[in-house]
Write a structure and sequence with these properties.
heterodimer; A: 262 residues; alpha+beta; 26% helix; B: 307 residues; Ribosomal Protein S5, domain 2; six-stranded mixed sheet; four-stranded antiparallel sheet
């Protein structure tokens, strides 16, 4: 059975004009002349990441993820009874909700009082639902709740990776872990795992959610300007980063299972 | 520990705990000890860390046992009201996001969250922890509005205690930035008095003198809170979520650092509180306030040594 068919793919490519990057070349404050980014990284290096399972004791499973300035907690509840209003379903349901704290952004309530959290929730659902074995918990719901404590850019990929780690911690059957990564195209450069400032100044953005062992993509979003060569370079770099992130996530789960102090 | 003599000699302890929680607790409490090995009058170990969220002007992460609270203060400039032209304002909101417990679901804020918001607002106001004159920038023109948001990350009982401690710690960590005021009365961040202004020659705002320097917020008498659960004649300090559901009677004492009673809540419950019990709770709260004061002082010393 082709599981790939279940994977949700969402494309939104707007205004792809190859080679038209000249406008931003004049001012390029995101990258120093000797090739370092504002936080001292090289263009193809990820932010320092810290992952831990079991952050919330009240939950069935939970995880905390910190990628640079982006800090996220995800907890999983269930499988438990679906809401009364939901129609009968002989496969399980996945219910995702992402919230931002009011102090997550520099301006208070920038992300917590708008529609951003709804969009994030639906993107999280689409990224995960293809990886979860829904038939293993028929008629019930698994709740995936995320809270972004601090938003430092690339929030959605961090939430997705953290949520798949939390699902594994809760013992929910999955086909594979989902690892997500984003990249920005700025001028002639490709910046992997972009920060808030880099996302603001980007010409084009890309986010990919990847099941590394199965080598399948659950979600791919491309926005802004990309040349086709740049896009394939970005995909390659992101997929490579996802594979490495997947290894880190597996180590984290193994250590938790063996009781190694984290 | 098998549940012998209760019709379930072979029952596992965990199953017994879930099926007969009241009897499970009765056995422990009659022996004056609790399932987590605490004595009845002991609170859980508490840790405070200051400044975990750099995007907030003041923040603190507090853990009391498993109960975890993250509090953050954001400052915004407002025009003071005509009744208090030299007063700032503190707005408190307590959030229980769905991550914190199986009971809280997305949607409207839970009733418990609204109650705690109200109790926190009252405690901060009546203890006069924040002198609102301190938050004034220019009388009649501008003042600070401090938004204090407390997020419960893990709910395991005694939420008000942890939320109040997190609020106090975040306010203790709050740095009020130095600001200048333009001729039109707009408040702008003051730039350090180095040669930077030379680069921005057309900006006449920079000549404006600094109205207020960067400083810590001075705190008044700090309110400390202790929640107790009542069982027969026993008083259990700092109950967990499980203890709160099994022992229906909950009682909260808030006292300030000079020992004055700030608030006292006993929202119903099956056990009436006698004067003896009330006095015992107050003396437990006094002892707890000393412990918490020490934790906060340590957290502040540690934070200052790191920066």
């Amino acid at each position: 059975m082709a599981r790939r068919a279940r994977a949700t793919q969402s494309y939104s490519i707007s205004g792809r004009r190859a080679g038209d990057f000249s406008t931003k070349d004049a001012i390029q404050p995101l990258l120093s002349p000797d090739g370092f980014r504002l936080d001292g990284r090289r263009p193809h290096i990820c932010r320092p990441a810290y992952l831990r399972t079991g952050a919330v004791t009240a939950a069935a499973g939970s995880a905390y993820a910190e990628f640079g300035d982006t800090k996220v907690i995800v907890s999983i509840y269930g499988p438990r009874e679906s809401k009364k209003a939901e129609a009968f379903s002989d496969i399980g349901r996945l219910n995702c909700s992402v919230k931002f704290t009011t102090f997550a952004t520099h301006i208070r309530g920038q992300l917590s009082q708008g529609i951003e959290d709804k969009e994030c929730s639906s993107m999280l659902y689409k990224a995960l639902v293809g990886a979860v074995a829904l038939h293993t918990f028929p008629k019930t719901t698994v709740d995936v709740f995320a809270l972004v404590l601090q938003s430092g850019g690339g929030d959605l990929p961090v939430v997705i990776s953290c949520a798949s780690l939390a699902l594994a911690d809760a013992g929910i059957v999955m086909y594979d872990l989902v690892c997500a990564m984003s990249a920005s195209s700025v001028g002639r450069q490709l910046l992997l795992d972009s920060t808030y400032e880099e996302e603001k100044g980007e010409d084009g953005g890309l986010m990919i959610a990847h099941m590394t062992s199965r080598n399948e993509v659950t979600q791919l979003t491309v926005t802004g300007q990309w040349s086709s060569t740049r896009l394939s370079e970005a995909l390659e770099v992101c997929l490579d980063a996802c594979v490495k992130l997947g290894e880190v996530m597996r180590t984290c789960l193994k250590e938790a299972a063996l009781g190694v102090p984290q | 520990m098998a549940a012998s003599g209760d019709g379930g000699a072979d029952m596992e302890v965990e199953a017994f705990r879930r099926l007969y929680p009241a009897r499970f607790y009765q056995r422990y409490l009659d022996a004056a000890v609790r399932p987590d090995a605490r004595l009845l009058n002991r609170a859980r170990s508490t840790s405070i860390s200051l400044g975990p969220v750099p995007t907030a002007d003041g923040s603190a992460l507090v853990k009391v046992g498993n109960t975890t609270m993250l509090a953050g203060v954001k400052l915004e400039v407002m025009t003071p009201s005509s009744e208090g032209p030299d007063l700032g304002q503190v707005v408190v909101e307590f959030h229980m996001p769905p991550i914190c417990s199986p009971q809280s679901r997305p949607g409207r804020p839970a009733e418990a969250a609204c109650t705690i918001t109200e109790q926190l607002t009252n405690a901060l106001k009546s203890s006069e922890l924040v002198d609102l004159h301190e938050l004034s920038i220019a009388p009649g023109k501008a003042a600070w509005m401090a938004y204090l948001d407390i997020y419960c990350l893990d709910a395991d009982g005694s939420l008000l205690d942890a939320a109040l401690l997190a609020s106090v710690s975040a306010l203790a960590h709050l740095q009020i930035p130095s600001v200048a005021m333009t001729e039109e009365g707009t408040v702008i961040p003051a730039l350090p008095e180095t040669g930077i202004s030379n680069h921005l020659s057309n900006d006449k705002h920079l000549q404006q003198p600094t109205v207020s320097e960067q400083r810590r917020l001075k705190l008044g008498a700090i309110p400390w809170s202790l929640t107790c659960a009542l069982y027969k004649k026993h008083v259990l300090a700092d109950p967990t979520a499980e203890e709160e559901t099994v022992l229906h009677t909950i009682l909260t004492v808030i006292i300030d650092s000079s020992g004055r009673l700030v608030a006292f809540y006993k929202p119903g419950g099956s056990i009436p509180a006698t004067t003896n019990i009330i006095q015992e709770c107050i003396s437990l709260a006094k002892r707890r306030s000393k412990e918490l004061q020490r934790s906060l002082d340590e957290a502040i010393t540690q934070y200052e040594s790191e920066t």
